[in-house]
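User: Here's a protein and a ligand (adenosine-5'-triphosphate). What would the complex look like?
Assistant: Let me lay out the input and then the predicted complex.
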Amino acid sequence: MFLSLKSIELSGFKSFGKKSELVFTSPIASIVGPNGSGKSNVAEAFRFVLGEQSMKSMRSKKGEDLIWGGSPAMARANRASVKVTFDNSPGPSGTRLLDIDFNEVVVERVVYRDGQNEYLLNGSQVRLKDVIRLLAGANIGGSGYQIISQGEADRILNASPRERREMVEDALGLKLYQHKKAESEKKLEETGINIDKTRSLRREIAPHLNFLRSQVEKIEKAREMKEELAAKMHEYLSRENAYITQEDARLLDEARDYDQQIKILALQADEMRARRGIKTEASEVEVTILENKLSQSRQEAARLERELGRAEGALEVNTVTIEQIVPVPHVRQFIRDIEAEIAHVEQSDDIGAVRTVLASVRGKIKSFIEGLTGSAPETNEEARLQVESLARQLKEAQEGERIAAHDVQTVRAKIAAARDATFAAEREVVEIEGKLREARSRLAAVQNERSQLAGLRERFEEEIREGITLIGAAIHGWNKTEIPQGALSEDRNVQEKRRREIERLKIKIEESGISNGDTIVKEFKNTKERDEFLAKELIDLERSAASLEDIIVDLERTIDVRFTDGLAHINTALHEFFAKLFGGGEAKLFVEKPKHASKSNFDEDGDEIEEVPDEDELYAGLSISVTLPRKKMHGLEVLSGGERALTSIALIFSMSQVNPPPFLILDETDAALDEANSKRYADMIRELGAKSQLIVITHNRATMAAAGELYGVTMGSDGVSKLLSVKFEEAAKVAK
Ligand code: ATP
């Protein structure tokens, strides 16, 4: 048969001061020896190496007690070590005893005087947990039901229902699932803690994150506004620049034009002013003189006419001679002289010469007239001559009058012409001065416009500076902004509207009050990433919590099913073993109802109080009922020592039948049996040995007889236990 346990080696463990090895070659090995030789120490060595943590179950108080304490003959050891070797080669079904890819597995545990423990798996240091896990997978270890220590045979009977249940679960190989369940529960708890932590971290971050988000939204909005501002300013500035440039050129041209005009008009005005310098007053005097002369000529002519009338009358009435009237040669000469003088200046423009001639003519006429007075003709001839002379004189005087009138007329015309010319020049001057004033006022208007334009240029530059503080160098983009053709003909109000819009946008941006957006955006990004990480973490945690819950539920179900099945099998085996050992009767394991389910309390008002049950109460323990053959009494309390031992043996064996452990160690489990029961016990050992490897420590001959190999333990005077293979005959010497 397949032996899972190959050997055990003890060095420095308890009484085994020297290295000792037990090699198993038979399914049933028996360890025999005198009291106190160290047999139980071997059983405890198994407990030790399989990871036992209870010092009490190894009859010690502390780790140090497990180390060879020394004797007068041999110094104490510093470490105790036990090595157990498993055969782990694959079985017929290809499966290995232990879930590890080695054909031979050596588990070693070392304890040092300071209490430190070491676990080694095939020479490599591992954790206790790893050892327990590995062994649990092979139904080894745990509550230790497979190592029944001396005097502990009825431990399963003495145990509490809860402990008993644990032992049964252990025997059913549920420990592994329970480990897994416990681990999952622990993980679930840790996960729960992490979920809480993560949630609270997110809660902590949330307000800051929200604050940052709103800031970033504002920044984003400001950024958009700045972009809008840039676009608006580019168009505005580009148009403004084009407008200013064009207007500047236009106004400069206009100013030049007006300047030119003003210069020309000023010259023209000067010229006209010069032309208007002719004096007209002197001419008026001359006209007066000429008019006086004309009036004298008229008076003379009128006098001569009267004279002639008188002479003609006298001639008719008084027979007056011409000679009396006119000294003829003298008159003729006189007229010729005057005529010559007038002829001299008649065609002349020289007013002075005319004036002189007039004066001379006036003097001659005066003296002629003075010469005439008082000299009246004395004869008809004379009178007739006088009439003729007077008629001639009259004619001449009339001619003089006509000439004088003509002269006046001429001078008057000249004066009028001169006055007209002055007037014309004056009008021209007035007109030019008007034009000049207008040109000057136009020029002033243009200059005014130019200074306004300079104001616009200044504002334009100021707007660029402001733009730089708001949107930085991006403002210069206006330079590259094309404006549509014909844009300049646009109404200035449209541009003004643009400017107002820009001003409103600037105010909005300033009001948003975000100065250094970069750090906030960065912080927001980091915080958001952290929150997202936490959110993801939370999802992962919740997911793993859910899957852990699933695992736990699955494990509980598995444990439950296996436990119920296993218990039924144990009871079947128990029924048989019990009947075999007692020759009848009945023993049975049953699940106790959890205490809290059967009890209820009421408060003073009669209302039911829901008690919070402790774990012990929730956990349904296992009780045992025993009915002995031919006896009416029930229950464990009434059993004798031997009956108790038999019952527990039946129970232990039943348990190992359902899920046979690879090996069982029974330390004097048969101690209390009488001869007849010892034989039955030996039979059962044989039966059991077919399923599990057995190591039985015994003083019982019948049990020794059932073993395939015997080891003797002796202790010499040095206090050191020794192991040796012995023959049945030798062994029988120490047997009862
Ligand atoms: P019995 O047949 O009476 O049950 P046994 O063979 O089972 O006896 P054990 O109980 O295994 O004997 O051995 C007890 C012996 O081991 C005692 O003599 C005890 O002094 C010795 N011993 C126990 N621990 C140590 C130790 N740390 N160092 C040295 N000896 C020890």
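Summary: Residues 14-15, 33, 35-41, 65, 67-69, 150, 713, 719 surround adenosine-5'-triphosphate (CB under 6 Å).
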